Amino acid sequence: MKFPKPILFLLPVAVVAGYFLMNRKPPGVVVIHPITRTVAETVAASG
Question: Is the whole-model pTM more than 0.85?
């Protein structure tokens, strides 16, 4: 079976989302969201 690209991209996102849902720590989400955004922007800029 071949996995479409979006599934491979969303898999780590689902893992992180599940991690935060399990821990219920909104401050952690607030802290990590800008970090994720910065990484995404850096990858987009370098790509």
Answer: no
